[in-house]
Design brief:
alpha/beta; Rossmann fold; two-stranded antiparallel sheet; globular; binds magnesium ion
């Protein structure tokens, strides 16, 4: 039996970028990433998140603007192995007039009907509707507050979700 997929965003769930900037949240470490020329990006990451995610009954997959760069910059710090990732191609950050998030169609295509949870800080009712219409299997769109990031209650909810 294959397990459900867990599509994992970085900025929001793992990096609580919207927390008060002068105060790093407890349990987090800071990395500075120079993905582009200019000022390096400050990223807060929690080394307890990887083990907590790996303990869940899902197959993990990145679904983030970082795409494969998440394996280089994020995975080693949070304690995750190299993971597959959704390649958004030219949909990356491309606004849709129907209000559906630019990630959603690619995530549904990647899942190919397999049950999934999607952990992100940016889903909306338009995404719920899109997934309900285009994805034949069970799906859980789990929203995480980007001021807070993933917490034990999120892991408990994902652990107890019935997606098979
Ligand atoms: Mg995000």
């Amino acid at each position: 039996m294959s397990r459900p997929l867990l599509f994992l965003d970085v900025d929001g769930p793992l990096n609580p970028y919207a927390a008060k900037p002068e105060r790093r949240p407890e349990g987090y470490t800071t990395i500075r990433v120079a993905l582009h020329p200019g000022r390096p990006l400050r990223v807060w990451l929690n080394p307890s998140h990887g083990p907590a995610l790996l303990s869940l009954p899902y197959d993990l997959c990145w679904a983030t603007t970082w795409m494969d760069a998440a394996n280089r910059w994020i995975a080693p710090v949070v304690g995750l192995p190299e993971l597959p990732y959704v390649d958004f191609g030219d949909r990356l950050l491309t606004h849709r007039p129907d209000g559906v998030h630019w990630k959603t169609e690619a995530i549904v295509a990647y899942a190919e009907g397999r049950p999934f949870a999607w952990v992100d800080d940016e889903q909306s009712p338009a995404d719920e509707a899109f997934v309900a219409e285009h994805h034949p299997g069970p799906a859980l769109l789990h929203h995480v507050d980007p001021r807070i990031g993933l917490r034990e209650r999120d892991f408990a909810m994902l652990r107890n979700a019935t997606l098979t």
